[in-house]
Write a structure and sequence with these properties.
Its cofactor is [2Fe-2S] cluster; [4Fe-4S] cluster. Pathway: Cofactor biosynthesis; biotin biosynthesis; biotin from 7,8-diaminononanoate: step 2/2. It is an enzyme of class 2 (transferase). With about 400 residues, the protein is of the alpha/beta class. The chain has one domain: Alpha-Beta Barrel (TIM Barrel), CATH 3.20.20. Helix content is about 35%, strand content about 15%. It is built from 13 helices and 14 strands. It has helices at about 50, 65-70, 75-90, 120-125, 135-145, 165-180, 195-205, 230-240, 260-270, 300-315, 330-340, 360-370, 395-409; strands at about 10-15, 35, 95-105, 150-155, 185-190, 210, 245-250, 250-255, 280-285, 320, 345, 350, 355, 370. The strands form 3 sheets. Strands 3, 4, 5, 6, 7, 8, 9, 10, 11 and 14 form a 10-stranded parallel β-sheet that branches. Strands 1-2 form a two-stranded antiparallel sheet. β6, α8 and β7 form a beta-alpha-beta unit. The longest helix has 15 residues, at about 75-90.
Length: about 400
């Protein structure tokens, strides 16, 4: 397998040279650029340290030792390397703005110790189970999000999976997906475990991406929940991927795990059959009444390190600075963007936890010189559902498969 040598991608422009190499997808205002192909390394029998220095290579064969070597790099050097890789594949000024809405809150039968929506500690959290939102109410929320500048609308339901609910509720969710997709927005859902048939129905409704976080390493997972296994998560991701829907999968930092568990999570994500389209990096927001209520939050530098590692081992994925951002300063967030984050959740609430206000984020974008990513701008990673060409029943299985292969090429 050919590997990309250290930053050997060159750029030839008809105007002044640009400092960072950008893939042809990236926008270079005022200049027409032509990319020279990266040169293969002559020696394929590379030792560990050499292989991890081949920054920018798209690989799904990372070893844990290699990911740990990346993760353990001195922080400023790690951020520099991640920023360099980021500029190979992305416009560093462009950041996706997503809105997350809880369409069905509380009453979840799962036992995730970080989550306030589990029925196992409803008395301690005081969170009452609510019914699935009405179609029109959800549609109006999506309209407000679009008018506020969000380009991806994400809907979460506190279910073990659609199999636990009635046909009417499931069909309502499918209709939500179809109607919001009609607004010209990217649509994402997180509904628990999916069967292959349920994933296919979501794709036919026009779903862009499906979120199903791995949360932590396989070894630490049993300390986070007892109601499902790690393999259940991986099976749902496989069903989503096979249906032609883009995978959104990441984890939560600060649940008492060690550094090697963080390495294990990132290794698991980086060695999936295809890198996820999106990788959310969440900082634990400890909720009163949950088993993790007294867990101290991770530091901003912990999150920067995880984002930078994710950017290096999954160069083309969107890395989302997700929950817990409310505790970070502007400088903290700036370093996250420098390290390769290129997506955020905006709006003052993420499911049941508080989030940064939109006006605050708009000021941050202006201060840092960031721009909002338009909907359906082609993604380097993910399925054809992410570029807008695969939406609704008109997207056949063969067509989705062909476009997905083309995007991964």
């Amino acid at each position: 397998m050919l590997r990309i040598a250290r930053f050997c991608r060159s750029t030839v422009c008809d105007g002044p040279s640009i400092a960072a190499s950008l893939q042809s997808r990236s926008i270079v205002s005022g200049h027409t650029c032509q990319q020279a192909e990266p040169l293969p390394l002559e020696n394929e029998n590379l030792d560990l340290s050499s292989r991890t220095q081949d920054l920018g290579a798209i690989r799904t064969d990372w070893t844990r030792e290699e990911v740990n070597e990346v993760y353990s790099t001195p922080l400023l050097e790690l951020v520099f390397k991640a920023a360099s890789v980021h500029r190979l594949y992305n416009d560093p000024q462009m950041v996706q703005r997503c809105t997350l809405l809880s369409i069905k809150t509380g009453g979840c039968p799962e036992t995730c110790t970080y989550c306030s929506q589990s029925s196992s500690w409803r008395k301690e959290t005081g969170l009452k189970a609510e019914k699935l939102m009405d179609l029109e109410e959800t549609y109006q929320a999506a309209l407000r999000a679009r008018d506020s500048g969000s380009t991806r609308f994400c809907m979460g339901a506190a279910w073990r999976g659609p199999s636990q609910v009635g046909k009417g509720q499931w069909e309502r969710v499918l209709e939500m997906v179809a109607r919001i997709r009609g607004l010209g927005m990217e649509v994402c859902t997180t509904l628990g475990m999916l069967t292959a048939e349920q994933a296919k129905q979501l794709r036919e409704a026009g779903l862009t991406a499906y979120n199903h976080n791995l949360d932590t390493s396989p070894e630490y997972y049993s300390k986070i929940t007892s109601s499902r296994k790690y393999e259940d998560r991986l099976e749902t991701l496989a069903n989503v991927r096979d249906a032609g829907i883009s995978v959104c999968a990441g984890g939560i930092i600060g649940m008492g795990e060690g550094n090697m568990d963080r390495v294990g999570l990132l290794h698991q994500l980086a060695t999936l059959p295809e890198h996820p389209e999106s990788v959310p990096i969440n900082a634990l927001v400890a909720v009163k009444g949950t088993p993790l209520q007294d867990q101290p939050p991770p530091s901003a530098m912990d999150i920067v390190r995880c984002i930078a590692t994710a950017r290096i081992v999954m160069p083309r994925s969107v890395v989302r600075l997700s929950a817990g951002r409310l505790n970070f300063t502007l400088s903290d967030q700036a370093l996250c963007f420098m390290a390769g984050a290129n997506s955020i959740f905006d709006g003052d609430k993420l499911l049941t936890t508080p989030n940064n206000e939109r006006n605050e984020d708009l000021q941050m974008f202006e201060t840092l010189g960031l721009r909002s990513r338009p909907a359906f701008l082609p993604y380097s990673a993910g399925a054809a559902s992410s570029n807008g060409s695969c939406g609704g029943s008109s997207c056949s299985d063969s067509g989705a498969s062909d476009q997905r292969v083309a995007m991964q090429a």
